[in-house]
Each structure stands twice: as C-alpha cells, then as structure tokens.
C-alpha cells in the first residue's frame, strides 16, 4: 500500500471543528488508496500553557519533568483525531511515542531520534487499520523516560516517520499555504515560493522561520524525503503549497531568497574580561555545560581600561535564546565565584532580535552585505552584532526595529518579484 505522512500543526487542530476538518483531509487520502500516518501537534496555545506551568512551578526545572508535562498536549490531540476518524468510518488508532516506540536520545527537551521501529504500526496496518495517528514532538529515552524534541518538534516527527516508512510524501499542513520569502504575517509583500532548496530552508528555519523545525529539514535533506508545506484551511491537491527539494530542481535564481527573524534573542556582555589565551574556553565551557545555546559571539576591546585585574582586558559579547538567560547568568556567576573567570560586570540586553538574509546565490555573488547594511542604515537601524556564513548574513538589532528591518530587507532585495 502506498503511504503518506500528513502532519497537522497547532492551529490546524485548535478545536474540535478544526480536528474534523483535518480528519476530512486524511479521509480523502485514504479514499485515494493511501495508508496514512498522521502526526499531530498539541492544540494551539496548549504547549505554551504547559511550559508556563512548569516555569512557574520550578524556574530551573528538572528537564525530565518538563518533558513529562509538555509532551502531554499531543496525547490529547492524537486520541481526539483517532476518535474523529473513527466517527467518519475510517479505521484509525492513536499512538503515543512510547507505544511505537519512538526511541530517542536522553537529551531532554532537545532529544534526537535513535530509531523508529516499524513492526507495531505495520502490524496494525496489516490488521486493516488505515490510519495511525502519532503524537508528535515526543519519544522515549533509553532510560524509559518521556522525551521531547524541542519546540516545533512535530515537524521532525513527521519527517522521521516519512523516512522510516518510506512514505511517498511528507505533507506539513499549517496555517499558511506554503513557505514565503519571509513571514507573511509581518511583511504583506511576502511572496509564496513554489519550491525552496533544502539548504535554504535549513538556514531560514535555523534563523527563526518557524514554519518548519530546523531538524525536520536536516532529516528531509539526509533521507531525501519529499517534503511539502501547505494550508490546512484551503482545498489542496498534489500541486498545492511549497515543495522543499534539491537545489538542482529549482529554476528561480535570486541571490537572496528569504529573510528570517528571531525575536527570542538576548545579548549578554562580560565587561572587562582578562585578555589571555584560554579565556574564551573558560567562558563558553561552563555555558555549554549548562546547556546554553550560544549563537553569535564578538570579542571587543574593552571600553574600560581598568578593572579588577591589571593587564589587557576585553569585552566578550554573545547572544543566546532569551529563555536561557537565567541559566547563562548562573553558569557565569558560578564560574566567577570559583575563580575560573574574572570580569567586572555582566550586562544583559533582552530587547534584541536577530534578522537574517539567506540565499544560495550568496556563494557566488559579492555585495549582499553592503546592500543589507545600507538598507538598515537608511531606516536608521543600528546593528549591534553581525555574523556571516556561506549563504547567510545575520544582524542583531533592537527588537523594536525588527519588523521594519525585515520589510526593508525584503524591499532591498526585491523579493516580492520572482526575477
Ligand atoms: P504549526 O502550528 O502548524 O506548526 P507554526 O506556527 O509552527 O505552525 O509555523 C507556521 C508559521 O510560521 C506561520 O503562521 C508564519 O507566521 C510563520 N513563518 C515564519 N516564517 C515563514 C515563512 N518564511 N514562510 C511561511 N511562514 C512563515
Ligand atoms: N506542540 C509543540 C510546540 O508547540 C510541538 C509542535 O507543535 O510541533 O512546540
Ligand atoms: Mg510548528
């Protein structure tokens, strides 16, 4: 039997009517002759609520219990989706991660897949069930504890199942009708892309475009999964949405193909750090051990030439996700107390955002950085930190200018037109 994976995100299963709407899409594929693995997210807002409860209960929470709580939203939707399908005379059964079992590493809240054995689901399909509804975002660790895959992780569950079951396609149904040149919610001129290369999608996702979780794109690229993003609110067919595919399959060739942003950033500066070999290791070692995902890093000549230590000094600035600031602060203060790093002050700026331009064409074209910086300057946006790689340029700016910057860059690279 040919098999499809269909994933429905939070807004697509936000209430019973929407679950029914999604179930109708599933039924249509069953009628076309497919077995279907449906991956569901929690109802929209649910995971945020659960995360809030955990943080209120225990600010520096035990990650195992965080996962036990936040994974539960998906369980509800999986059961409701199976019931809805049964009401439509579609034989369906729900599966929580441990029942499959979806085996992952034990990195709680950032677990990675180890194995998805096919036997249990295959046996159910062989019994005549047409649909397996799997709770997204979750798995089970080698220790037998529930894990989660990081926010937005149901996308990754979907792609992993598509790879494990050799699905014909992995369709990600969401609240937009495809991948756009930038978030259509903040730039009205955003243009829907018919196709996007895996590598570009990977960069856009990792730089904040939450339409797909980064890891899902990585897996799709590695296992050559035919991945599509499309609307759960519109009538759709095989040609709808955006296909994420190989670079060679794309005709369009813009230097920059998209703009991404992330508002959940914080900038931390260690003021007047001793400038000696090993100091960066002494700072970033404890941060890594504390599980802080450091992103951009700059080392500057310190504005202060005094401090608690004589000799040359530097300022070390880095960015990290805003919800890791407390962890980062503790790691640095502990290291200072233990004497392994010396600094005068820790300055935290939580009012920043990261804006990035992405494009495979940047490999062979110069001048993207200057166009970007000019566009930002023309709108009076000050750049705090810059980071570049082969196919992207990112800047950290004041959060209040984020939307303005995204729109300015979308205009500067003429993304509203295809050529
Ligand atoms: P789901 O709940 O279905 O997983 P998400 O909220 O995680 O949906 O992702 C969809 C959202 O991603 C859209 O509503 C849109 O605001 C946002 N988004 C950000 N960047 C883009 C982009 N380049 N193209 C399309 N959507 C984007
Ligand atoms: N419900 C989880 C989240 O909100 C996973 C997902 O929706 O993909 O992050
Ligand atoms: Mg999502």
UniProtKB/TrEMBL annotation:
Spell out the Gene3D superfamilies in the cross-references: Acetylglutamate kinase-like (3.40.1160.10), VC0802-like (3.30.2130.10)
Enzyme type, top EC level: transferase
Q: Which domain of life is it from?
A: Bacteria
Residues of the ACT domain:
268-360
Residues binding ATP: 7-10, 174-175, 180, 185, 210-211
EC number(s): the record gives 2.7.2.4
What Gene Ontology cellular-component terms does the record carry?
cytosol
The biological process GO terms on file are: homoserine biosynthetic process; lysine biosynthetic process via diaminopimelate; threonine biosynthetic process
Pathway of this protein?
Amino-acid biosynthesis; L-lysine biosynthesis via DAP pathway; (S)-tetrahydrodipicolinate from L-aspartate: step 1/4; Amino-acid biosynthesis; L-threonine biosynthesis; L-threonine from L-aspartate: step 1/5; Amino-acid biosynthesis; L-methionine biosynthesis via de novo pathway; L-homoserine from L-aspartate: step 1/3
Provide the alphabetized UniProt keywords: Amino-acid biosynthesis, ATP-binding, Kinase, Lysine biosynthesis, Nucleotide-binding, Transferase
Catalyzed chemical reaction(s): L-aspartate + ATP = 4-phospho-L-aspartate + ADP
In this chain, substrate is annotated as bound at: 47, 74
Q: Name one GO molecular function term.
A: ATP binding
Q: Which family does it belong to?
A: Belongs to the aspartokinase family.
Q: What is this protein called?
A: Aspartokinase
